[in-house]
Amino acid sequence: MIVEVAFSRLDPACRSASGRAVAVIDVIRATTTITMALHHGCAGVIPVRTLSEARAVAQRLGGGAILAGERRAGKAVGFELGNSPAEYGRERVRDKTVVLTTTNGTRAFQAAPGAQAIIACSFLNAAATARWLRGTGLDILIVCAGTHGRFCLEDAVGSGMLIDRLLCISDRALELSDAARAAHQLFATYRDDLLGMLRGCEWGRHIIHKGLGADLEICAQVDLTDIVPVMHKDRLVAEYT
Amino acid sequence: MIVEVAFSRLDPACRSASGRAVAVIDVIRATTTITMALHHGCAGVIPVRTLSEARAVAQRLGGGAILAGERRAGKAVGFELGNSPAEYGRERVRDKTVVLTTTNGTRAFQAAPGAQAIIACSFLNAAATARWLRGTGLDILIVCAGTHGRFCLEDAVGSGMLIDRLLCISDRALELSDAARAAHQLFATYRDDLLGMLRGCEWGRHIIHKGLGADLEICAQVDLTDIVPVMHKDRLVAEYT
């Protein structure tokens, strides 16, 4: 089973998605928020690229849909929810469909054309994601959202955590690319202080500067849930492992 | 002093080159070969993108120039030298100008437009490169050649070695980007077995498969020389630190 990592949605490694299972990782905060929403009973999350696309999709869905969007770490003007996992409590999202657009994370779901399966991974569901991926028997491409197409530490560490969980449960050898080996080593470096890593990385410092530091404590929770957000047509829905 | 790392010549981080000192790293093998050539008295190395451009430049320079090129790890057809540092002995290159084209490395020198200075770095001259860079007082962008625009382990580790040397000698704080921090951690992971890392990484295994494994022992030599290849107009020439 081949495991490749793209360190951003613009990484040419994304071109190797064809026929593979793709796990999108945006630890701060899109895939953490999506995982938390589904964990709290959200019916589905539709990731879209732009604010206008989000408005159009939510309008088409009518009253049942929640319009959610983030720009520059804050809630998009006129949107009901931002990209803070703390906003996605059970009472707010249960049985609702969320239309979500973020600067980097939701765009990463369109970065890997030809994928056989697309799922969302975060620290919250790394072990569940590994079990789900092993069940497919497919080669794996992990796509880090990154920041504006650039490497970011927290998504690389998240990739490494997923690879660590895959290595723990795999009954056959994993063929790790250079990027996958590097991500696994970076997880080993930071595994004992994930919250410190989140507070010290570039985007984490920006989130703290915006007064959203409490979100990082949510993003740092490891294997909180057995839910895997799996893309069916246009939306991510909960599957259990 | 800001230190940023682009993990390949296609990394958007290359867009931050303007006004900075750019250190290009292609451990296997272009910047190792360039450093070795200048260490052995080569008058200058002109890095070019294509085989035809190399032929044209060498022809314009006349008899004094050596035509060197690599494709698929081997010597380009009809070229005098390939990209093996073992080929660049003193008797072969002393006082000669080399026109060199390689698949990834020489193209990386064009990846960072607007740079204030461009130099070549490898394990062979990491400490010398760090001294040279500190002397400029400029912010730093390290550009890994990568492999076809993708992350490769050996260039990330080489970036980390250069950052390690910079941290050892810097009299003021370095501001490391996420990618720079990751590279430094990867160097710390592999520093005690650099040759093993070179033999195990993707491109290193390819080089061994091509029967060029002995080159990796040359690439693995650390701080062999005080020479820094510095770009002046179209060519890299030796400066001493």
Automatic annotation (TrEMBL), chains A, B:
Catalytic activity: (2R)-O-phospho-3-sulfolactate + H2O = (2R)-3-sulfolactate + phosphate
InterPro entries: ComB-like (IPR005238), ComB-like_sf (IPR036702)
E.C. number: 3.1.3.71
Gene3D superfamilies: ComB-like
Keywords: Hydrolase, Magnesium
Keyword Hydrolase found: yes
Molecular functions (GO terms): 2-phosphosulfolactate phosphatase activity; magnesium ion binding; sulfopyruvate decarboxylase activity
Pfam families found in the cross-reference section: 2-ph_phosp (PF04029)
Cofactor(s) listed: Mg(2+)
Record family assignment: Belongs to the ComB family.
UniProt-recorded name of the protein: Probable 2-phosphosulfolactate phosphatase
Organism lineage: Bacteria, Candidatus Methylomirabilota, Candidatus Methylomirabilia, Candidatus Methylomirabilales, Candidatus Methylomirabilaceae
Gene name tied to this protein: comB
